[in-house]
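User: quick one, fold this
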Amino acid sequence: MKQVIYQQLAERKQAGKKSFTVLIDPDKVDNASIDQLVSLSVEAKVDYFFLGGSLVISSHLDECIQQIKASCDIPVILFPGSPSQVSKYADALLYLSLISGRNPELLIGQHVISAPFVKKSGLEIMPTGYMVVDGGAPTTVSYISNATPIPADKNEIAMCTAMAGEMLGMKLIYMDAGSGAKRPITEHMIEKVARHIEIPLIIGGGITDPEKAYRNCKAGADVIVIGNAIEKDVSLIKEMSAAIHSSSLVQHNS
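Assistant:
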């Protein structure tokens, strides 16, 4: 199985290079806004697009990806809210296992059902340990998953969960405070997790300003994902990108 994008992520981590990912919810964009988003992202040197949402209509997902791919060569990675959100037009898929929760459906159940379809898609599959952290507001993911998020101040729980995910064979750890989180994940928690795993660490949820994105990178995040803040103000892309990429010069002491 091809591992082109994962290899790139791993190499960027090794080199201390931080990556900026723009999260696009296909239900919240139209053709004109996609064009604007792609144009600004190319200009700002965005590294990846994550595409997904909680309730995506799959035909629109295909169209959305094709429109992005026609305008740029930024890799498109699926960040699915459900197993039905698979498109052969994307470059890769985050195969998410909700390791922070205790709902067996989202740990393995849905994967069993979707496995033949996912395999047939020909996408690069990236096994991802998905950890939801309490962001101070109920999120769609915590509601749909019926799983309690990791408390925001329980750094050791986050650390042990991430370590377990890595030892179980996950290739990425994705810590998410959820869309529109009131409180983003703390630098203390990011640092604690980053010091104890060797695989790339993705951080998202509630990051609304470049300073916070920079500090997250300094704490040990390898990939910063921003969606909601950009939906509200697309001009943030340039500043966010500059902050995240400039932090690549700051080596994380592991």
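User: anything notable?
Assistant: The radius of gyration is 17 Å.
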